[in-house]
UniProtKB/TrEMBL annotation, chain A:
Keyword Ribosomal protein attributed: yes
GO biological process, one term: mitochondrial translation
Organism, as annotated: Notodromas monacha
Keyword entries, A-Z: Mitochondrion, Ribonucleoprotein, Ribosomal protein
Similarity remark: Belongs to the mitochondrion-specific ribosomal protein mL43 family.
Main location group: mitochondrion
Residue ranges occupied by any Ribosomal protein/NADH dehydrogenase domain in the UniProt entry: 37-129
Top-level taxonomic group: Eukaryota
Name assigned to this protein: Large ribosomal subunit protein mL43
InterPro entries registered for this protein in UniProt: Ribosomal_mL43, Ribosomal_mL43/mS25/NADH_DH, Thioredoxin-like_sf
UniProt cross-references to Gene3D superfamilies, sorted A to Z: Glutaredoxin
Molecular-function GO term, any one: structural constituent of ribosome
Places the protein is found: Mitochondrion
Recorded GO CC terms: mitochondrial large ribosomal subunit
TrEMBL record, chain B:
Secreted listed as a keyword: no
UniProt superkingdom: Eukaryota
Name this protein carries in UniProt: Large ribosomal subunit protein mL44
Keyword Ribosomal protein attached: yes
Pfam family name, one: RM44_endonuclase
GO MF annotation list: double-stranded RNA binding; ribonuclease III activity
Domain RNase III residue range list: 71-202
Compartment annotation: Mitochondrion
Homology family: Belongs to the ribonuclease III family. Mitochondrion-specific ribosomal protein mL44 subfamily.
Organism: Notodromas monacha
Segments passing through the bilayer: 17-34
Keywords: Membrane, Mitochondrion, Ribonucleoprotein, Ribosomal protein, Transit peptide, Transmembrane, Transmembrane helix
Amino acid sequence: MTSSGPILKSGYLKAPLYNGVGRFVCQLQRLTLKFCKEHGGSRGVRDFIEQDLLNFARRNPGVVIDFIEQDLLNFARRNPGVVMYVKPRRHRSPVLKAEFLNGEHHWLSLHSMDREEVHRWIELMRTKSGEQMVRLRKQWRNYPLKQEKLNLLPISSRSYLPNKRISEYWKKMFLVKEAFPLAQSRDLSIAMISRVHPVLGLLSEKRY
Amino acid sequence: MANTLRQYLKHLTHRKLLVTYPVVAVAIGLGLYMERVESGRAVSFHNKSHLFYKEPSSSENLNYDAELYAFGKRLGEDFDPQILRLALTHKSHIEAETQRRRSLGVSDADLNTDQHNGLLLKAGRTFVSSYLLRHLQAAFPAFPKEGISSLNGYLMSDDALSVVSFHLGVKDLILCQEYPPSETTLADTFLAIVAALNGDAVRERFIRDFLVTQLCGKNVYEIWNPADPKKLVTEILLATRKSAPESRLLRKTAVNTLEANFNVGIYCDQRLIGYGSGETATIAENSAFVDVLRRMFRLDDSRSPLQFPIEVESPDPIHARLQARE
């Protein structure tokens, strides 16, 4: 996955409604399992429903699972924490639809998955925030932007900085002769370093 | 029938029509697309729900009781199901139901027209507002009254309340005439839900956990922005029997360039009480006064983050003291 491609949008890590600052709320609101009662492709989903679903519902009373089937309705009645439907659809591929509190819904094909896999996908849905998947951006970077390079070049090419370490580092980073006119003022340039560079900024603030 | 026709048209659009009658094909294609857009089924690549508000497919056969039960469990609250249902029922729903029964000629004798959240809503609004005031006063002890009340106003606004309400998952549970519910309806529902909770302590915790946390990461001065910081600083200083503030240019650099920088300090009784910088002396002076205000209100950048579980004074101090003695 390239970082510049259009496939994934980029963004910062965030929690819906500052979840967890006050109290934690499970973001999965509704789970609908659609499957076929006969077809082999739904085998894993049927196994999951027969063996795991009730346990899942008992553990997570906040998630509404829709059940239509008669037999399971009895189970659901016995467990007041869970009310359930399952949507059987003849000869159609099994599908999972998870709806989240932020209004998003995620749709997932469960075709030919075994019980274990179905279980894992449902666990994933339970622990998701429901936010759109994004490529995470970081608040820091370990390279200067082009603009910063242009601004800082005069410093790099002359050993302006009183601190030896910074000067050495700077020279290593830009092995360029003086290509641009001097910055207007040395103070300003130092102010710039402290503003733009995460590492040098800290160092220069400490030293001067 | 309509569905078959549409399928047929779609087929034609893709195959034959496009070659023989391109204009007609494009028109039909556009029509189909517009229909999809209107019904909310158009496919956008990123984040569909923001562009097209789509009704969840399971909402046709939502189990309302189960949803209500899950709502309480999810938030970790024990609601009385009757009261919660009342809190989610808006007046417009009752009115529409009455209208519908009348038009069908069915008796509406069993329909109680008072069974909506009007009263809960009022009670909730009063409670939330009074708790917010107390909480904000405890959280920002040095903040002036106007600031506190504008923070309160911000949190009580439909914008803030509706965001919280939406993320609690009430969208599909609200009984009202409109879908999706408007911001006002969502905000009102939140207030009614607070009133539906059992006990003041529970309500306060609920408001703190869901509403007050909305202040996370917000800049207080974006919510309350004093129009004339200089005037305010002067007033405060004079009220505390200090001399009027003096602003002095501390340093300047790169004057007459694009990146000119002025640094202005504010002095009171020959002590530096705050400073700020900007591209002109006036801007720098203004930001210096804002800095003074920040320091006065103990809301400077080095302040530790907001603490949410804080000691909040109870509404009646005497009552609280008596309780403590008991």
